[in-house]
Design goal:
15 helices, mainly alpha, single chain, about 75% helix
């Protein structure tokens, strides 16, 4: 639907992602804002922005699997570990440049994701969740106990900073200009996938896999493709994490992180590319709130300030998801769509 008085006269206009001059203006303004944001942000918020960018990539992949295909995974963080260690090994042992190591890390995580996605051909729901949960235990165990001479075992694997034409990206400021453009590119990639025949097949499987199969959708191919793409995105996110943190350990990729990823697509909105971004920002905002509130609580009630930050993070996470499940189960993206519909129909919105 277009704003009042605006009409499509060509098919290319009808299918365009950026459809009006106002959209182009907003897009260019947003890109300019992202470009200058590090110049105005403190070092702490640069860390926050970089973390958000990496998380958006991982959550967009999970959104393809859970939001669009209807398959659940509780092992996204483990797939990030595969990508991170692939990058760490390629960069440290073989000197592979980052523009090669990042896609190779995505491919390695995608191939591992195919293995844990095989049960989706026979089971679904709770049973599939348990099958993918196995990745969250098997992969960290293998990192810590198999070929420790390569992975470093329980010790952190130090990753050299990425270099671009001899320019080392060895600070939060410099890494921002690698992470955020990649996050934007991967989001654009997801947007185009869900608009293609592949995306329509994913949605058909989500809505009714039996009916989709009757209509000619190859469940074997598309379910495994969904798991591959989900894990590929996690691998790219893990590769960026390795370059960002510069020292990686299996303890960085925990079950709670996988649960957080699921919470982000629930609060942002299932089956929405924009919703994945909203969910990441919303829960990261709650994380920052959990960091600030203990200082305020400590000023008012010094006796209970100890340990308040550790307690507030899971508390706010649980409450944040509960509010959306009860009051807005379709997530922030649904409210955003309602706002856009109001704008498009104005002045006849009422």
């Amino acid at each position: 639907m277009r704003p009042g008085g605006v009409f499509d006269v060509k098919y290319t206009e009808d299918i365009a992602i950026i459809r009006t001059k106002a959209h182009w203006a907003l897009l260019l303004s947003g890109l300019c804002l992202l470009a200058v944001l590090p110049l105005m942000a403190s070092s702490h918020y640069l860390v926050v922005f970089n973390h958000i960018g990496i998380t958006i990539i991982a959550v967009q992949g999970l959104s393809l699997l859970t939001g669009f295909t209807g398959q659940i995974s509780i092992g996204q963080s483990a797939m990030m570990a595969v990508g991170a260690y692939t990058t760490g090994i390629l960069a440290k042992r073989y000197g592979i440049p980052f523009w090669t190591a990042i896609p190779l890390s995505g491919l390695s995580a995608g191939c591992v994701g195919l293995i844990f996605g095989l049960p989706s051909l026979r089971v679904k729901g709770f049973y599939l969740a348990m099958a993918t949960l196995a990745a969250q235990f098997i992969i960290p165990w293998m990192i810590n106990n198999v070929r420790v001479d390569i992975t470093g075992g329980v010790f952190s694997l130090v990753v050299p900073p990425p270099e671009l034409m001899g320019y080392r990206l060895d600070s939060q400021f410099k890494m921002y200009y690698l992470i955020i453009p990649l996050a934007a590119l991967m989001t654009f990639f997801v947007k185009n996938i869900v608009r293609s025949g592949i995306g329509r097949a994913f949605i058909a499987i989500r809505d009714n896999d039996l009916a989709a199969e009757v209509m000619g959708v190859n469940l074997f191919y598309y379910k495994l493709l969904s798991f591959f793409l989900c894990s590929f995105f996690a691998g790219v996110a893990g590769a960026l994490w390795a370059y960002w943190m510069r020292a990686i350990n299996a303890e960085n990729f925990t079950l709670i992180e996988s649960v957080f990823f699921l919470g982000m697509i629930i609060t942002g909105g299932m089956g929405s590319v924009t919703g994945a971004i909203f969910g990441v920002i919303y829960l990261k905002f709650l994380d920052e709130l959990a960091r600030v509130l203990p200082m305020l609580i400590g000023n008012l009630f010094p006796a209970i300030s100890v340990g308040a930050e550790a307690a507030l993070q899971p508390l706010l996470f649980g409450l944040g998801i509960l509010v959306f499940v009860l009051l807005e189960p379709r997530g922030i993206a649904h409210r955003w769509e309602m706002f856009k519909s109001y704008y498009r129909l104005w002045p006849f919105s009422d």
